[in-house]
Amino acid sequence: MAEAEYTTTTRIPIDAVWDFVQEMDNWGRFVTGYQRHEKQNDTDSTWTLKGDVGVLSRALTFQVKILEWNGPSRVSFTLDGVNEPMKGEGTFTLATQLDDLAARLRLATRDRPDDVAARLRLATRDDGVTAAPGVAPRKNLLFRLLEVFWRWVLRVAGGGEPARDASAAQAASAGDAMTRLSFKLRLQPGGPMAPMVDAMIRPLLLPAAEDLANRILAQLEGAEATQS
Q: Of 115, 156, 181, 218, which has the maximum CB count within 10 A?
């Protein structure tokens, strides 16, 4: 299964980010390979995407179902391929730095010595990559080069890198509450071509997650700069 998670921060208030993210019409065009989407109801929609390489050059249609809509902190959804055997799931999560601090304090006061030791033990993933829990697994050189390639492709296809406002990604003062946006996506191809498709989409997912999150925040930061 291919999976990726990307997190970034902004000074845009969490409620403003949520107001934008909760309406898919606002950001659908930022999704990699976006062609169109159609909403059937509040939880179900159909999305059509198209890439430029190999199996990704075909139009892929997904049925998306929202499982959790918990504003202003979390949206979770599933994806089912309509014209290709592929399943997946994803989440958008929003939090403030104060939320993160409170969570760390709860964890620190809850942990016993054996809990801490368990967190430090190495975990081996099903793809053979070893990493400590909470630590990103090491990637081989070819995989990193492919991620760089896909970042370049996305920037060219999207007309350049998302124009994030550098000042909006930093707290104006020590008391400012930054908003953290995380996007996580997993995709599991099926059928006889599954291993090849999985190998193609693995290095694409992280650049695609980065591109989507940064284009969403670039839109909001640009609107804020225009108003100020």
A: 181
